[in-house]
Amino acid sequence: MSQRTLLSTSIKTALFASIAVSSSVSISAYAAEETAKVERIEVTGSRIQRQDMETASPVTVIDAAAIKAEGFTSVDELLQAQTSMAGAAVGSSTNNGADGVAQVDLRGMGSQRTLVLLNGRRMVNSGSGADSAVDLNAIPVAMIARVEILKDGASAVYGSDAIAGVVNIITKKDFEGFQFDVQGGMTDKSDGENGEISALYGMNTNSGNYTFGVAYSKREGVIQSDRDWTDPGYSSFIPTGSLGGKVINDQGEWVNRDSGYDYTQDSFYQTPNERTSVFANMVQEINDDIVFTGDFLYTKRKSSQQMSAQPADIMLNVCGDANTIPGEPCITLDDAMIKGGIAADDTGRVNYRRRTTDVGPRIYSQDTDTYRLSAGLAGTLDVHTGFNWDASYTYGNNKAKTQVDNSINATKMEASVYANQGAWFSGDPLNQAIIDDISFTEQNSGGNEQHTFSAGLNGELFDLDAGAVAFAIGAEYRYESGYYTPDQVIQDGDSTAAQQDATDGDYNVLSIFQEVSVPFTDKLTGEFALRYDDYSTFGKATTWKVGLTYEATDDLMLRGVAATGFRAPSISELYGGDTGSFDYLTDPLGHEQDPQILVRYTSDDDLQAEESESLTAGLVYSPSAIEGLSLTLDYWSFKVTNAITRLDVQSGINACLIGNDNTACETFGIDPTAGAAKFDNLTSSLTNVGSQDTSGIDFNLAYTFEGLGLDWKISNDTTYLLNFEQDNEDYTGTIDGNFGAYAKVRNNFSIQASQGDWSVMYFNRYIGEMDDHYTDYDDSGNPVAALAKADAVLYHNISGTYHINDDMTIIAGVKNLTDEEPSRVSNGSDGGTVPEVYDVIGRQYYAGFSMKF
């Protein structure tokens, strides 16, 4: 054994001292590369290089073959299909407000609480600007070798954002030759077409490997009204316009509005998307002890969404009313209007609403560019049994241009109504001159930038009777900035859309981290991690993690992890400009004409970091009596305190107007005495008063065997949600258009049979029944709490793979074979359901071809 050096002695002393003082610890996760090698590698969730695959933390691994077989064409699609996901992460089915981004929501705790890594290093937050999470559209499926989902808190290793867990996307590397892939699909209604073409080229040299790739994908839209199960939408904003809630009929009489506008004919269930990506990986040995590695990714995304024509809602002064200021422009109420019951309110005004179909539907479009460049040096030191060192720099940049065609300038519209009262109130279509005057194209810009410098050292300190004590230490500096600049018309508040201010800010953080793995006995191993972060914004954070694995028998391993975590407030949370949001809310007094009510969202530059505690405990069982069978069972629990949150506005409205809670009225800016104007200042502020408390059980079964002359693979994943509470509201087993789904049971099952060159797979996905809480009204018109049920759904999928020869493979499959309809949700976000949770597209066919040279 090599003699101990001063360096190794110092490191050992520092590590043991930190463990004694803070009881802190590390995590581990998955293990080997695609080709099994008896060597030490770094695994997701730990910086200690190791040989073994079984670790204290539960990890799900999805490889490229599974991704291709199940027909996934985007990273968010494959992630949201996992049982460990909940809530309602935005993606291809989000038509309103997401700007085309796609995110992951592990445990339903929010996309901002799941850390996304690319090859073990952070991805830049991306989207339309000043974003709080990674846009998964930036990562093409074609470049993925596997995806590792660490279902455990990992702040002690990776820092902020890893409260709920980590998604580590490993790209293809060490490739030699040329590979061409094409895949496409469409629904059985002949819409929603999607396809991807990619090429991969790699070459080996005497001292390295260079792998290059390019991918192009395109996805077409699906209109909501093209699905038979979609109920027609109903909006109080109609194309002919309404004045004081009245409409003019063919006889020139003003009568109560008795019809609404069906917005489903204009809105998407699946949003169009077009992406072009270029990526590269390199490994180059500089000498026997030093290796240079690098990876590059560039993705251009062009996406769009479409919604019904802009709903214009303005208040007009009434001429002659005592409350109208002399000299102000005003409208004249003629005899027919007065006879119909149209009158000024107590401010001297009357409400005018119009669906501006004359201008056209709102078409949202995004053009984003995301770059990511990472380079590093790694080597060994002739210290003790050999230490490994690494140093890296990672740069990320995201720029976005977004626009909204057929937007309406409310200021110009109001002036036009005053000047052209007859044209606006006649119920007839508007002329082109008026259309050109009031409409404009909204243009916004935004971006994100990230710089990360990191260095580390790992190896073995000394030997115990049960094995070597391993360690990892390191430091990291990270700089983040972001901005979002809305169109000037939006900033000035002149649009019929909600007013929004600009966002601009930055911060930096310096971090020091350490881990140690101690084999206490041949059967018991402890893993410990400690991390210190110093932010330029809120200050300092210290997190720890302790994990234990115990090999009770040759067949049974017990494991458990306890950890603390944190999430730093994002740029948009700290420096975000005030913005309006039309949320789906219910007025319990029944005065609001529409289910969407304007809420003013505000930020706070004094926000503190969120804090969390997590616990996982379970077992891994591989019975020697049944070869090929393995089982895992894990209990998990996460508690977040000091959470950055917007309180539940609906609960605040109910507390104020039904419960007469003055504090709730003040918190949300509600004036219960103001009649129809009581929501004019409805506000939702970010605060550190939120909380989350969730727990559940994960079960996995994997079984490979031979039978009937075939090779079989069976897999089953189950997540049983025991509890999910947020801000003292219990969402366990419920679904809602604003918060998404928290089903008690989710299950994925697959069975594959193969022989020689072919294989066939059947897999299904189950989402359990959920409670659907909503507000109803009794015979007297009084609001009452009501409960419906969102039915359980079971989706069936089949696929087949055939290897024509060693170089050519074809894949074909059907998703949602039985064309299951989504469950109805009374407060759904679109089409009477929640598209982020259920399949709203229907039966889809797909096929692919791969060729290697």
Description:
- The protein is mainly beta and 853 residues long.
- The chain has a single domain (6-852), classed as TonB-dependent receptor, beta-barrel domain (Maltoporin, Chain A), CATH 2.40.170.20.
- The protein has a 22-stranded antiparallel β-barrel.
- Helix 11 (649-657) packs across helix 12 (662-668).
- The longest helix is centred in the first third of the chain and has 17 residues, at 6-22.
- It is globular, with a radius of gyration of 29 Å.
- Residues 1-38 have low confidence and may be disordered.
- It is found in: Cell outer membrane.
- Belongs to the TonB-dependent receptor family.
- Residues 53-166 form the TonB-dependent receptor plug domain.
Which architecture name does CATH use?
Answer: Beta Barrel
Average pLDDT: 90
CATH H-level superfamily title: TonB-dependent receptor, beta-barrel domain
CATH class: Mainly Beta
Would you give the CATH topology? Maltoporin, Chain A
Number of strands: 43
Beta fraction of the residues? over 45%
Give the C-alpha Rg: 29 Å
Number of domains: 1
- The rounded distance between the terminal residues' Cα atoms is 48 Å
Give helix % range.
Answer: under 10%
Separate helix tally: 12
Low-confidence stretches: 1-38
Q: Would you tell me the structural class of the helices and strands? A: mainly beta
What gross morphology would you assign?
A: globular
Biggest pleated sheet: 22 strands, antiparallel, barrel
